[in-house]
Design brief:
Number of strands: 23
Strand order of the largest sheet: 8-7-9-6-12-13-14-15-16-17
Shape: globular
Structural class: alpha/beta
Helix content: 25-40%
Strand content: 15-25%
Number of helices: 15
Radius of gyration: 22 Å
Length: 478
C-alpha cells in the first residue's frame, strides 16, 4: 500500500537515512516529541550524536540496505550525504511508493505553522540558534528548535518540538540540498519571520565557485523576510553591510560599529566572564556571558536583538542570555588532564579558526595555546589556502593533520596538509605536520606540558582524539 503522507507532521513512522548527522538527529528528536515512531540507519563509525540519540531512546541500524525499510515506514527522510537521492534505502523507498524527502525540505515542513527564526552565514549559526532557543525556553516561550549540534547544554537536547509555542528556531544553510543532483541551497524551503545574519564569507567553493554566487543566493533569501518580520544583521561585517544596502526588508543592525542600531559599548573580561553593555535604540542592556570570545559577545548581542523583537522583556533578555552555557563542539571545554586544559571546536573556515583562537587568548592571556587543526575538504583547503595559513596567530604552537575529505569529493593531488604547513610557516614560527590520529597523539604527548591550553579544531573526525588520548593516558598510568 502506497503512503500518501506529504508532511512529516502527518507521519506515524519516519525512517531517517543518516540519522547520526547533527541536523538529522535534531529533526528526529522533533519527530519523537510528536509521538512519531522513529527508525534510522547510518555508518558504523562513532559520531558526536551517538550518545544524544541513545540518551533519548533512539537506536539505528548499521549500514544502508533496502532491508532497513522493514517494517515499512510511511516517510523516508534523507540527507545529501551517503549518496543522497542515490542511497539504496531512498531508491528502494521510491520503488515501494514510500514518499521520500530531503532533510532540507523536512526541516521546512517542521517549521510550517510556526514563526521561523533562522540563522545564516559562515560561523556562528549553531551558537546563535542555540542561544535563541535557550533564551526562549528559559523564559517560558516554549519554542520548537532543530539545531545542528550534538547537544545544547542548557537544554539537554539539540531538537525539540513543542506544540504550545509559536516559534521554530533553526539554521539556514546555503550548502546544496544534494550535491551534484539538487544544488539549490538547503534554505530553499525556509520562509523566515526573523533572519539573523552574523557574517558572510566565501565558503563551499564546490557549490559557489565565486563569492558573487554566494552573495546572490543570500540576497534572494534575505528578500523573503516579510514586512512584519526582521533581518538582524552584523554591520561590522563588510559583506553583510553591502547586502543590507541592497534590500528593503525591515532590518536592525548590531555590532561594535558606531552606526549599529544595537551597539556594543563595553566588554570587560574577568574570571572568564564577559561583562557586556549594549545600547539598543536608547535602551541600555547589561549582561554577563559565560562563553569565551568577542565573537560570542556578538552572537549574544544578535540573540538579544532578535528576542527583543519577539517581545522578551529586558529582564527576560538578561535571564535568557545568562542561562546559555555553550553547546557541543563550539569552544567546548572537554577535560583537564595532567594540568593541561583541552578544548574542542568545529571550526573549519579561516575566519572561524581566528575567532576561536582569539577567544581562547582572551580567556588565557598568559598560557601557551596549542592548536591542532584538521582541514576539511580539499576544495575548501585549496580555495582558502592562504587565508588558512594566516589564521593561527593567537596560537603558540600549531599542528596540522591530514585533510579530512568529504564523501562528495575526489582527492585533489594539488593540495595537501604538508603544503599548508609550509605556507603557514611564513606567518608562524612553530608549525608541524602530524598526519593521522596516532601521530597527532604522539605529537601531543611529546610537545605539551602542564599549563598548556590545547584546542582541537575541525569538522572531520578529529574529535575522536579525545578518547584515544585519554585511553593512552590511562594505559600509561597502569
Amino acid at each position: 500500500m502506497t503512503s500518501n503522507v506529504t508532511s512529516p507532521l502527518e507521519a506515524n513512522h519516519i525512517h531517517f537515512v543518516g540519522i547520526k548527522g547533527v541536523g538529522m538527529t535534531a529533526l528526529a528528536l522533533c519527530a519523537k516529541d510528536l509521538g512519531i515512531k522513529i527508525t534510522g540507519s547510518d555508518v558504523e563509525e562513532v559520531f558526536v550524536t551517538d550518545s544524544t540519540l541513545t540518551n533519548h531512546g533512539l537506536t539505528w541500524l548499521k549500514g544502508f540496505s533496502a532491508e532497513n525499510l522493514n517494517p515499512k515506514p510511511d516517510l523516508v527522510i534523507f540527507t545529501g550525504a551517503h549518496g543522497g537521492f542515490n542511497n539504496p534505502e531512498v531508491v528502494e523507498a521510491q520503488k515501494l511508493g514510500i514518499p521520500t524527502m530531503s532533510h532540507a525540505q523536512a526541516l521546512g515542513e517542521f517549521a510550517k505553522g510556526k514563526e521561523l527564526i533562522t540563522v545564516g552565514g559562515v560561523g556562528g549559526k549553531t551558537t546563535i540558534a542555540s542561544m535563541v532557543s535557550t533564551m526562549l525556553s528559559t523564559t517560558g516561550k516554549h519554542p520548537s528548535f532543530a539545531v545542528g549540534v550534538g547537544d545544547i547544554k542548557a537544554l539537554g537536547t539539540p531538537g525539540r518540538y513543542d506544540k504550545e509555542g509559536k516559534y521554530f528556531v533553526t539554521e539556514a544553510d546555503e550548502f546544496a540540498i544534494s550535491h551534484g543532483i539538487d544544488n539549490r541551497p538547503r534554505f530553499t524551503f525556509q520562509n523566515p519571520k526573523v533572519l539573523i545574519l552574523p557574517n558572510l564569507e566565501h565558503d563551499h567553493p564546490d557549490i559557489y565557485p565565486n563569492f558573487e554566487d554566494t552573495k546572490r543566493v543570500f540576497l534572494e533569501f534575505i528578500n523573503r523576510v516579510p514586512a512584519d518580520g526582521l533581518l538582524v544583521a552584523c554591520i561590522d561585517n563588510a559583506n553583510v553591510r553591502e547586502l543590507v544596502k541592497n534590500t528593503k526588508v525591515p532590518v536592525q543592525t548590531y555590532g561594535f560599529s558606531e552606526d549599529a542600531d544595537c551597539k556594543i559599548t563595553s566588554v570587560e573580561i574577568e574570571n572568564q566572564i564577559a561583562n557586556t553593555t549594549l545600547l539598543h535604540r536608547g535602551v541600555e542592556h547589561k549582561f554577563s556571558l559565560n562563553v569565551p570570545g568577542r565573537f560570542n559577545v556578538l552572537n549574544a548581542t544578535t540573540s538579544i536583538v532578535a528576542c527583543s523583537f519577539l517581545d522578551l522583556t529586558q529582564e527576560e533578555l538578561k535571564k535568557g542570555i545568562e542561562s546559555y552555557t555553550g553547546c557541543q563542539r563550539r569552544i567546548e571545554k572537554v577535560r583537564e588532564l595532567d594540568g593541561i586544559t583541552y578544548y574542542d571546536d568545529y571550526a573549519h573556515h579561516p575566519t572561524e579558526i581566528h575567532a576561536v583562537l582569539s577567544a581562547l587568548r582572551d580567556w588565557y592571556p598568559d598560557r601557551p595555546i596549542v592548536a591542532i587543526f584538521q582541514p576539511h575538504t580539499y576544495s575548501r583547503t585549496k580555495v582558502l589556502f592562504e587565508e588558512f595559513s594566516k589564521s593561527f596567530g593567537n596560537a603558540n604552537k600549531v599542528a596540522i593533520m591530514d585533510i579530512y575529505a568529504s564523501a562528495r569529493e575526489e582527492k585533489d593531488p594539488t593540495v595537501n596538509s604538508q603544503k599548508l604547513v609550509e605556507e603557514t610557516k611564513k606567518y608562524h614560527n612553530d608549525v608541524h605536520f602530524t598526519g593521522g590520529h596516532e601521530t597527532t597523539i604522539e605529537f601531543l604527548t611529546k610537545n605539551t606540558q602542564k599549563g598548556d591550553v590545547v584546542v582541537m579544531i575541525g569538522a572531520g573526525d578529529i574529535f575522536h582524539i579525545w578518547d584515544e588520548l585519554t585511553n593512552k593516558h590511562l594505559n600509561n598510568d597502569q
